[in-house]
Design a protein that fits this description.
The chain is α+β, with helices and mostly antiparallel strands. It is built from 12 helices and 10 strands.
């Protein structure tokens, strides 16, 4: 068996396999998308993936990543090296998991990565020290870390004119595509697709009210492929055409109205106000989605 600890570089070439020994993969640099027996996760600095023996797993990194990998020999090795920590370590290693390191554990991983781990003694003793630390306590990767909704909101608004994919927002959140999609819906009551569609429409309406830009230009700025697609979407959601929106603006100015005739519904404000809200009736209709699309990347559908 090769040294227990090793440094490995991953790239966009997807690896799909299994092995008889248990493996721990610690993120050092970059992001590694991981799937173990259908469970998705992302390995990056201060995170690790637990790959039990014989578990089929897939991994790949679109932009490249560097990881410290620990190939754990067997139960006898655990018992000999870890003493009273062996049972806790065995429980840690027997099921797939994505875990978050403490700052001290993260420093230990960094120190080992910079050490001559080709030396069998350093490799074995370093792996034993690391496992003993993990067995003493390690949290699930997503515990106590809500989605960065403010950053997601800002990212969407900055990129409305571009095609947006779920993997783009998942990258902002530091999660796999599948896990991000599930958590976004759970925390906000909306799917990512629904939220992006609402932001496109809201910003388009605001531009109609606040500028004299041509409707076609506004449509392009908020991600619609044509003026007609934007008009149909606006009419379906607000019950108003672009001309009607601007007519209302003119009427409001003439009457010095202080309140908008159609107050923006709650979902058009901050994502922070959307946590655990139930989508309004009809929100699931996607026939007005812009042709630029907001789709889960096919390349990441089956893996994190």
């Amino acid at each position: 068996m090769p040294p227990i600890l090793s440094l490995r570089h991953y790239n966009h070439d997807q690896i799909i396999h299994s092995h008889e020994h248990t493996q721990l993969v610690f993120g050092l640099r970059g992001q590694l998308d991981f799937e173990i027996d259908g469970q998705g996760s992302r390995v990056q600095q201060q995170l690790l993936a637990v790959v039990p023996s014989d578990a089929r797993h897939a991994c790949g990194s679109a932009e490249g990543s560097l990881c410290l990998v620990a190939d754990i020999p067997n139960w006898d090795w655990l018992r000999q090296r870890l003493g009273h920590h062996a049972d806790s370590a065995h429980r840690l290693l027997e099921r797939p998991a994505a875990l978050r390191l403490s700052p001290t554990q993260s420093q230990l991983v960094g120190w080992l990565a910079a050490s001559p781990i080709n030396d069998p003694i350093i490799s074995e003793q370093g792996a034993a020290l690391l496992l003993a630390s993990l067995a003493s306590g390690c949290e699930p990767a997503d515990r106590q870390y809500p989605l960065p909704l403010t950053a997601l909101h800002a990212y969407v608004d900055r990129h409305l004119s571009h095609p947006l994919e779920v993997r783009d927002l998942a990258r902002v959140a530091g999660l796999s595509v599948q896990r991000f999609h599930a958590r976004f819906a759970s925390e906000t009551g909306f799917t990512p697709q629904e939220f992006v569609r609402l932001r496109r429409l809201h910003q388009g309406r605001e531009l109609l009210i606040s500028t004299h830009l041509a409707v076609g230009e506004i449509a392009a700025r908020v991600g619609y492929a044509s003026q007609s697609a934007f008009t149909a979407a606006l009419n379906r959601h607000y019950g108003l055409t672009p001309r009607a929106v601007r007519r209302e603006r003119a009427t409001n100015r003439e009457s010095n109205a202080t309140d908008p005739p159609h107050p923006a519904p709650y979902h058009e404000h901050s994502l922070l106000q959307m946590r655990k809200r139930t989508p309004p009736r009809g929100l699931m209709d996607r026939s007005d989605s812009p042709s630029s699309g907001f789709r889960i990347s096919a390349a990441l559908d089956a893996r994190p």
